[in-house]
Amino acid sequence: xxxELLTDTFVDLADTLxxxxxxxxxxxxxxxRAVELLGASAAGxxxxxxxxxxxxVAASSEAVxxxxxxxxEGEEGPxxxxxxxxxxxxxxxxxxxxxxxxxxxxxxxxxGFTAVHAIPMRLxxxxxxxxxLFRDQPGPFDSADMRIGQALADxxxxxxxxxxxxxxxxxxxxxxxxxxxxxxxxxxAKGKLAERLGLDMDxxxxxxxxxxxxxxxxxSDLAQTFIEGDxxxxxxxxxPAHHRHRQ
Length: 247
Fold this sequence. Notes:
The protein is an alpha+beta fold. It is 56% helix and 14% strand.
């Protein structure tokens, strides 16, 4: 494991008391680093909104995004189970889990995932959501890696609860609801950019996120402006890559 990246990740997940804190980007950092550090093929993050409804807020790939949405719509799967129970849910070989999750399992296998480890995002008895780790090869997850995975999820949870020193649960809930709403706008912007440039959804999201960071913009603000405005206002974003490279 890359120890320097691991240290940087804990620092990044703890550094939430900043003026331009972006919940969506923060949780994408969690999912991306989980893949890099824990030997997972993909990762997704779900949160519960103030009414207890589960929402997908981050995914490391389009394939896992669709699978996570399928979990929510089908009301079945490991991430839902880890959020409901507050306990890690492990299935090292999904081929043997068809009775446990009869709708989710075939969808996961079709997407190319054969093992899953769902980690609760919790602080004591409060469960905010879950971090789902998927692999494309069956087999047990490394116990040391999974302890680190739980530590990452716990650190992210504490960061969310303490963001801008807002410790009251209802205020945190309002902010999380706003983040969940902004996710819809980000998906719309991702689709618009993908169609304009002929990109897949993963590449479109990467381009949006990079542009936001390069221009010191909140991802949700960029997405809203991109949807409502003229794409020509974003030449560094909407020009094909080969054209940008010639400039």
